[in-house]
């Protein structure tokens, strides 16, 4: 596991066009941030410091990891990806040394994005009296690494969480986390975009395509991950039945499956 933390992962060719349902203002801010990151010299001339850290927060399956990958791809950066829980170690100093080597390796391969999912497991609120336990030492090392880098050293730190409220305030300070973006569950328009993304290149019966507006309307509360899995399930069923395209019955089957899989949801009548 130590080695996997230290290595950059090859990235699939994802761009921001592969992420649907992102609010317009957020997209605009991401494009501005990317322009600064891609041309740090110009930004410095103008007097803008490139951001060092971005926080993406929101419910599970809304595309936070996808967005981090797309940002790295747009920056042409190496992608170091791990989860906050990978630093939870009972042995003295191990968590902190993992944080150190993650950033050291990223600096060697800059430009690089260091992505930490479930960052609340690493940067949760510290006890007010300061317990000084291992997890606090690991967080302190993360803060040291975030403070230690220069704003133009080619490292962008991206953290993701479902629980922003759990994060330590020191971690959220500007200069460590410069932007926080809420990545919400998609609205109807967003769901329609995500349906288009996940049906690109798929062979679909015409009544399936004709049902997309209704589908977007009726799937309130679905995340991008659930919409993606809907079309995966429908595609697998079509293959299993020896069809050469996805039929409406495959989609209906997949919808039933997804709804049954979620105890808290019923389809909204459009
Ligand atoms: P978690 O909080 O559970 O880590 P996440 O927000 O990081 O989830 P992702 O891992 O990015 O969610 O999403 C899982 C998959 O779901 C993606 O690889 C993609 O196929 C699909 N998906 C999720 N959100 C979107 C979106 N906004 N647009 C397109 N596809 C999406």
UniProtKB/TrEMBL annotation:
Q: Which residues form the AAA+ ATPase domain?
A: 50-187
Family to which the UniProt record says this protein belongs: In the C-terminal section; belongs to the peptidase M41 family.
Any idea what this protein is called?
A: AAA family ATPase
| Organism for this UniProt entry | Peribacillus saganii
